Amino acid sequence: xxxxxxVGKSFKDALDIVKKELGPDAIILSSxxxxxxxxxxxxKDAVEVTAAIDEEDAAPPAGxxxxxxxxxxxEIRGLRDEVCFLKETLRPIVPTLRVGKDKKGLFxxxxxxxxxTQFAIILLERSQESLDSLRGVIRKDLKIQGLVPAEExxxxxLGPPGVGKTTTxxxxxxxxxxxxxxxxxxxxxxxxxxxxxxxxxxSKQLRCPLRVVKKISDLPKIVYKExxxxxxxxxxPGYDYTGILDDIKDIFASGxxxxxxxxxxxxxxxxxxxxxxxxxxxxxxDSIGFTKLDMATQYGSIYNISLMTSRPLSFVTTGPGVxxxxxxxTSEFLAGLITGGI
Length: 342
Ligand SMILES: Nc1nc2c(ncn2[C@@H]2O[C@H](COP(=O)(O)OP(=O)(O)O)[C@@H](O)[C@H]2O)c(=O)[nH]1
Ligand SMILES: [Mg+2]
Known about the structure:
This protein has three domains: 2-57; 63-141; 148-338, P-loop containing nucleotide triphosphate hydrolases (Rossmann fold), CATH 3.40.50. It has helices spanning 11-22, 62-90, 104-112, 117-126, 131-141, 165-178, 193-206, 219-226, 241-251, 270-278, 300-309, 331-338; strands spanning 2-8, 27-36, 44-53, 154-158, 184-187, 210-212, 232-235, 259-265, 287-291, 313-317, 326-327. 42% of the residues lie in helices and 18% in strands. The strands form two sheets. Strands 6-5-7-4-8-9-10-11 form an eight-stranded mixed beta sheet, with helices on both faces. Strands 1-3-2 form a three-stranded antiparallel beta sheet. The chain is α/β, with parallel strands linked by helices. It is rod-shaped. The structure holds guanosine-5'-diphosphate (GDP) and magnesium ion (MG).
């Protein structure tokens, strides 16, 4: 408890001083009229008030408020420095901290589309804050080759079972025939009656020769003879594409003249694609093609796989329909697809 005397010209005047100094919670203990003046001789009327305040209730003096605020600000600055330090320490472990808050929306968009987190971070570091800029950066990373390199010598299609090899042979055969190329069909999938029957039907439709090769050692003489006439389209079985590539490497010591295209089902998980890709001799693969775009729900894996395989893209297929469901996309089209819309 703090007790103090206050003197004013009147009782009200004295009360005002009490309030100012001790705050509104001060208690008036007593008051009395007094005479003031030097040595009490001027005899001026005045009122003396004795007031008390509980120390804990005492309202802080005017300067105290601002020093409290300063303390708070100091503490906030300290915390901010600590957070910055923690962020720097965590950056290598939590890479998304590298994405500034102005690009967080684009980052989330890429990740939602299945773009690998690390790739997304690097893309955003190279891009401005707009979607257009991001698409521009993606576009630069995609290499689209189309059919041109295969128009003279053709394609051998490889990939896991059911990915769409036989169907794609048919679509590409139609495309090349439409360009007046004399297509030659070869099937290495002699064990599958359905596949051979399909190729026979295609050969009839397009009036182009079909050779069904049972032993891979028979391939060189057929390839060297037929390739003089026009592009070869070679269908392979899905169960042993790794072995086929190894055999081709052994048999064609001076190089295999047909382009080898690895087909990837766009609706497969990236992990499965990478497993399939890594299980074969990837050095021998010239290009990739994405099938079943119509079945995929997101297209980020097109970007991931294009980067991871570092092979140019020959085409994409967009449905089971022959001959129409195939296209050679532009990089603009793919960048639009990868970022979740055209
Ligand atoms: N939805 C869709 N289905 C496709 C596409 N390409 C092939 N298919 C279907 O996928 C299945 C397997 O195709 P196929 O060519 O036999 O695959 P392969 O085992 O690799 O030769 C068939 O039912 C095809 O009609 C495509 O782009 N989209
Ligand atoms: Mg097949």
